[in-house]
Amino acid sequence: MGENQNVKPINLLAVSTAKNTNEILSELIKGSQDKILLKLHLGDSASDFKASSLVRMNARPGSLGHLFNESKKYSGVDLQLMASESFRKDLETLIDQLFRHSNAYRYKSHNLQNLQDYLDYYHILADAIADKMLANDIDHVLFFNIPHLAYDTIIYQIARSLKIETTIVTQSLFPNNFFSLREVEHYGEINNAKVSVRKKTPEIPELELFYMKKIKQKAEKNGRVNVKTIINLILFIFFKNPRLIFRPIYLSRILTRIHKIYKSFPKWRDPFANFFHVNELAYFEHLAEFETTNFDLNERFVYFPLPMQPEMTTSAIGGAYRDQLLALEHLSKILPKDVKIFVKENPKQGSFARGPLFFHRISRIKSVTFVPSFADTNELTRKALFIATVTGTVGWESLCLGKSVLIFGHAWYRDFPGVTEFSKQISFEKIINNIPKKNDISLAFGRLIERAHKGVIDRAYTRLVENYNVETNKINTAKILTELILKEKEVTFTTLK
What we know:
Helix content is 37%, strand content 11%. Helix 6 packs across helix 7 (151-161) and helix 9 (248-262) packs parallel to helix 10. Strands 3-2-1-4-5-6-13 form a seven-stranded mixed beta sheet, sandwiched between helices. Strands 7-8-9 form a three-stranded parallel beta sheet, with helices on one face. The radius of gyration is 24 Å and the shape is globular. The protein is of the alpha/beta class. It has helices spanning 19-31, 53-56, 67-70, 79-83, 87-98, 115-135, 151-161, 227-240, 248-262, 278-288, 312-315, 324-334, 356-363, 377-383, 393-400, 428-433, 438-451, 470-485, and strands at 10-15, 36-43, 49-50, 140-143, 165-171, 177-181, 301-305, 340-344, 368-370, 387-389, 405-407, 419-421, 453-454.
């Protein structure tokens, strides 16, 4: 090892579940020249432990078996996590993330049924993972995305409680750029003192939101039951309720309700294309009631498009405002009486976090108007007094249009001109007067990109990179990650304090 022979290597735990990030990870370890040792890897079945089995609660092992077979006795090493000031908040966050794999939202779900089940599993999981981390003398954890899938979140929580260093990388919306940070709470915080002064104002690229390609902003012919719907209904029967085969009348009623729901929405809004559960019926029946809502764009209003749940944007960086209705309730209290809130549902949303009480609770906020699915979000953005969002991309799009933005969570653009972070002391006047100027947005964008890193972490974003080369990306990205772990390179986002 030459001059570094007396330097203690870093014992790394990596959370990497995708083929491309596994390849980057292998390159990182190889290229570090023994400065970084991969001691634990949570990922697919070829990794030490299979990450998804911890949230699906199945017995599928990794190369070292199943975590619970390796850790069968209570060790007590999780006590620091339980004693932390953020324990209750951390516990609530993990339960929220585990709930996405519950019976109502997955065909192959875990079997946690009540609060005590979730509490028991949290303690078992925390103790088993903490035991493994200490047994392997882990002193650094690498995440290839902001933790938001329960198994990565509890690792992050344990690392924080044990004061173990973390490096988090996450893909940006801008081609061939990714962000880095040490703590989730730092997301969006740019330390301008460490950014050089640019001689030229950079041009802001137009976002290509490929994941929204099929979403339209207009009314069109109503949809109808299709092959995907029938397949998902069959999967529901097979995994959740096989007895329905012997209840043709009840099954017929379900089909009738499905047909009625499809007739209520434009054909691009396919309610059951990805998943079917009887709980979804009630959600879409409630949602259909708003398809005939009248709204006037000439009124004074704030636009609040609901982010999709469960997703990182709410369950990880939304903080307390992963409860989006809490954001709406707080927003309503600072608005003048003549200002309405136009709320639009995410076009990909299902029934998660959208039970009957959700609609009852939102109906109690008198300033809210729930607009139809075909309402044009671009027109709503242009006509609004300002945009309110937890952390959504709509906030960035609004800034580029010169609109003020109110955020409730840790958005990546939180330090940009024109952005106001919600607090109980904030005023309506302060928000609407915080109007961003195009040149200021460009300068802030330049500062952000200067602190970003070139490369692709999320393989879905390779389509945005012209002449993308897998091998080149792997080598370059691994080198950047090595430098971040060894603290030879500054992270994108870091606290201003």
